[in-house]
């Protein structure tokens, strides 16, 4: 796997996490 491929994966992961954190209802910690 090349560095650019890793960077792409990282970017997609971070975007997914951001979307999760924007909606607390889907928060992994079940925030109030």
From TrEMBL:
<keyword id="KW-0695">RNA-directed DNA polymerase</keyword>
<dbReference type="InterPro" id="IPR032567">
    <property type="entry name" value="RTL1-rel"/>
</dbReference>
<protein>
    <submittedName>
        <fullName>RNA-directed DNA polymerase (Reverse transcriptase)</fullName>
    </submittedName>
</protein>
<dbReference type="InterPro" id="IPR043502">
    <property type="entry name" value="DNA/RNA_pol_sf"/>
</dbReference>
<dbReference type="GO" id="GO:0003964">
    <property type="term" value="F:RNA-directed DNA polymerase activity"/>
</dbReference>
<keyword id="KW-0548">Nucleotidyltransferase</keyword>
<keyword id="KW-0808">Transferase</keyword>
């Amino acid at each position: 796997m090349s560095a650019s491929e890793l960077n792409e994966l990282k970017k997609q992961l971070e975007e997914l996490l951001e979307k999760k954190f924007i909606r607390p209802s889907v928060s992994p910690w079940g925030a109030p």
